[in-house]
User: Fold this.
Amino acid sequence: MTFSRLLFLTILASGLLARQIEAQARPVKFQTHDLYVVLQPPDPLGRIQDAGTVEIQKGWNFFYINNKATITHFSIAGKAAEVLTVQPADTTTLASVPWDELPPIKAGTQAMYVFFRSSLEGVVPFRINFTAPFSDPVQDVRFSNELVGKEVAGTILEQGAYLSPAAYFYPRGDEDLSAYTVTIEIPVEWESISDGNRKASTVHNNRKIQTWENPYQSDGVIIMAAPFSVKSIRVDGIEVACYFFADDTALFDTYLPAAANYLRMYSDLIGPYPYQHFTIVENFFPTGYGMPAWTLLGREILRLPFIVYTSLGHEVLHNWWGNSVYVDYQRGNWCEAATVYGADYRYKLLRSKDAARNYRKDILKQYASYITENNDFPIRQFTARSSPD
Assistant:
């Protein structure tokens, strides 16, 4: 073989290999999000813009978004980029996109792939505009200690709107933590809430516009909005608020002082509260969630007389363990145990030694009832609860 022919084949093979490597699609990593979410209930369609920064590679990239989204604009570093949206079941289209070990989307997940190509690499600005309907049913949702019900990912209804990361109402990639600022445009008679601190609230053209910002990076963001009545107090420079529906405003004077006492107690025990607000929010379907600087309690749960002495303090404490000091899921989810110890068990201990002993005994009885050789596993493998076991 002549030298020139060998050189030609070497160059050709190198070029093919380079194109093959360049063509492999990889998930992006979003660094920051600046979301603008327009809600016009009872229309289930959310109108969403997101801008920020994202880490990409040269060639093919992909991210995830709601599987019913219609993308009207997508740009990288100010330049419009074409996107290819692919449903996870569309194996024919997926086969046309070069990828290597493409992460599968689990059945039932409200996400699809969005592929794009770029000549840039590194952390660059992005912008996306899209619409998507959010209409998860809420009438049959159940939430209890014994029944881990089907969770609502996202819904926009006349009685309120709720959007969680599971609804993919913003683009998501392979990042662990991102920074979030969220602006929500809602009917003027509504109030909104999201993670972190409220930065602004204005009214324009009979629409309310409110901005929330988490001062810490987090693994996601949640939005809630509804025609709430609001009452707040201040404790040691922190705003403590209740966002309740009109039928439950009589509970304001029960929840506000109780939340203030929990904030004082845990600030003394652990250190300063990490946010400027703590808000108790009533939901129109069953939930018992704790997010950075707020908790979302379903109506039936909120009305239970013992909640202020049990679950409320538990959710306040999560703002230290889980919502500002984060869990490393590669090593197991320790924060629920720490929160139970500092809240549920502590309240029994403050009551009496007998109450604390009975609490420990009940936990051991539950362990003996549920755990067998077939379902036992090391604590480091626990990430989240998915059953009563």
Q: What stands out?
A: Confidence is low (pLDDT under 50) at residues 2-22.
